[in-house]
Input
Amino acid sequence: MNSDKHRSQYLLIGLTVAFVILAAQLFRLQLLDNSFKISADNNALLYQTRHPARGLILDRNGKVLVGNKNTYDIMVTPRYVKDFDTLALCRILDLDPEYVRNKFHEYRMYRTRIGYRTVTFVSQISQEQYSRFIESAHKFPEFRGVPRSTRMYPYNAGGNLLGYVTEVDPKFLESHPDYSAGDYTGRTGLEETCEPMLRGEKGYSIYLRDASNRIQSSYRNGEFDKPAVPGKDVTSTIDAELQNYGEALMRNKVGSVIAIEPSTGEILSLISSPGIDVSVLGEINKYYTQIAADPFTPMFNRAVMSPQPPGSVFKLVNALIGLQEGIVGTDTEFPCRDGFHARGISVGCHHHKSPVNFTEAIMVSCNSYFCYLFRDILENSAYSSEAEAMDRWHDYVQSFGFGTRLGSDFPSEAAGFVPASATYDKVYGKGGWKALSVISLSIGQGELGCTPLHLANLAATIANRGWYRIPHIVREHGNDTTDAKYSEKHYTLVDTAHFEKVIDGMYMAVNAPAGSGATARVAAVKGLDICGKTGTAENPHGDEHAVFVCFAPRENPKIAIAVYIENAGFGATWAAPVASLMVEKYLNGEISGSRQWLEQKMLDANLLHKVPASPDYVPPKDDD
Output
């Protein structure tokens, strides 16, 4: 009896506790927490996305390279769309009726996936188009405009450098679940590199709507709205004025230019020509087919994606290796009888005095001198075989950054290629090749592949007397600074003491008096002490390719630069003038009166007709 009484008491207590818990939960849900009510009321609520303003891209001096302007997206909820005047909507939004038909065919095809979601019908319409739409919006109640910012470009330069922003596609969404249909993302260039910082965070506004899908009012006065978080501004290493000037000089030419601040590794300008015109970046999808069909491949960024033989500028690397290995000294002389000739192998050279010493060989770019030097590097008795010497040479070259991705923060960087003994063992068989078999490497030809970024980094490394910092293009974003790896020094395997000997030759190549045979006197600028090296690469399908690397001033260098112009003839004819004008513009702020004729010549030159209408590259043979 007693136990029955206790069981009744326990049951009553349990029911009372359960009732209290249930009442408390109902109180919380109905009066304190509206999240479940909102979920239940979703059919009556409209969530309108608030797109964040994308972060600005600034140059090193705070000038805007990429800004924002206001446009609108027209949104639609396909499930609620009734018959409407298609032609009238097309006239208002400047659309082709076929576009509308295709869109709604797509909505019907994916109606299950879309459900009751609101999707983008047309993106980035102008203020004028939006104003016309607003005047007639009552005729299209299922459509509405949503403001969003799109990109604008104060400088008509840097299409390949800056990259573009485009709407995400289904393939992109598969690997990026944090994006949704209708979102935009950066593609190529700085827009891609800095996407995590630039994109910002979407928000939303909640509106009440009636049974006809018409918006009635803001839900709870915006209490549950989520504001969009703007993207962070990014400060790049680029000098806007230098970039703009360099692109003007490279107009109507095929090639690339990269300028670096040697002490920091910061990229001052990065030019690929012909490139994407910034006027089409905001509507890249509209012009994509036309751009992709261009025989000069403007979307291909030659500056970082095009490994090509470096030509005679690579003699600088072999010269430094020869010094380090004790093969040559500054007084070492070799003959040149219009080239190098040994055991049936000949490498031609232009006419100049003979013999020449180390400094003169760099000044006049003597092919014969560097063939002798390279042969002695591989036939060095300090090594057990030419294959062992070759692998040591390979290690030296790689220590300059060649044959690897340098690790830049710019996307799509190519590694290039530096051969080793295994490369030739595959071709000739082990032990089946000698120094003369690979003599073309002495003048930067053969199997070598280097991007213009590698060549600019070489100029910076020599300017620093033996070390470089990884070239990079982002300075800071928000309150963050760049990765620590960009401040580390990377030393070559060549002692610092040897670099001055090579710099002597580079200085003479630009600043030696008339009649000396110096190859780059056109690049001389009074007071700047430019040190440079020309390169000219033969091309069986047209004129030679022109190459030039330099840095300035000689002491405490502020800029190092590489110019590669395809089918442009000798390095001194086109590449050296472009490089020296950019150096002068950067260091002096203007071009001196005595060199304005050279500037005008570069601005007016159109070399496109010399370039074969094919993106295929044929490795050239050096002849300067």
The chain has a mean pLDDT of 87.
